[in-house]
Amino acid sequence: MAKVKRSCQRLEYTVFNTDMGWVGVLGSTRGLLRVSLPRPSAAEALEALGDIAKGAVCTASRLEDAARRLKLYFCGHRTAFPDELDLSAATTFQREVWHQTRLIPHAETRSYRDLAEQIGRPGAARAVGQALARNPLPVVIPCHRVITKSGRLGGFSNGLELKRRLLDLEARKNNQ
């Protein structure tokens, strides 16, 4: 992924506890940059945001709404993430894949091949998987909803157990 100069941008983060563990959110003046999936501790959630978070200011104010919605999501509520995203460090292909992934409805899945076809690259299912492996905003860009054509879970950079938990969380009948 190309490095983008962010010296003129204010980076902010917040770390908070959810029903599934500690989550971190990092944002720039352009939008959300990174979300960490649940971790056992606040320190691990912050570390999962990556080195870019080291220059960020801890604040909950601008990221409060995203944090509130992530808390709701991780306790089983149907939640939308219409946030502006800062994908300035992504390639054009990654942005296309991530945009299409954001369109997958709650509690539904698509295959890597489906996504490749939807972006007009029918032979690029593997490349779609690689783009999803680099997704900096899991849940907001719901890459856990992408599975193999045969229905297997496929890969997930945070482990297949967590992918299964997220899919099960969305599939619950009590999901509001």
Overview of the structural elements:
The chain has 176 residues and is an alpha/beta fold. The chain folds into two domains: 12-74, Double Stranded RNA Binding Domain, CATH 3.30.160; 92-171, Arc Repressor Mutant, subunit A (Orthogonal Bundle). α4 (112-118) packs across α5 (125-133). The protein contains six helices and six strands; from the N terminus they run βββαβααβααβα.
Low-confidence stretches: 1-6
SSE ordering: EEEHEHHEHHEH
Quick one: CATH superfamily of the largest domain?
Winged helix-like DNA-binding domain superfamily/Winged helix DNA-binding domain
> Percent range for helical residues?
25-40%
Strand order of the largest sheet: 3-2-1-4
What is the CATH topology classification name of the largest domain? Answer: Arc Repressor Mutant, subunit A
Distance between the termini: 37 Å
Structural class from helices and strands?
alpha/beta
* CATH architecture grouping of the largest domain: Orthogonal Bundle
Instruction: Note the quaternary state here.
Output: single chain
**How many H/I helical runs?**
6
Task: Map the helices and strands.
Layout (H helix, E strand, L loop, with lengths): L11 E7 L2 E7 L4 E4 L6 H7 L8 E2 L5 H11 L17 H11 L7 E2 H7 L6 H9 L12 E2 L12 H12 L5
Parallel strand pairs: 1-4, 5-6
Antiparallel strand pairs: 1-2, 2-3
Helix pairs in contact: 4-5
Short account of what is shown:
This protein is α/β, with parallel strands linked by helices and 176 residues long.
Keywords:
176 residues; alpha/beta; Double Stranded RNA Binding Domain; Arc Repressor Mutant, subunit A; 2 domains; four-stranded mixed sheet; two-stranded parallel sheet; 6 strands; 32% helix; globular
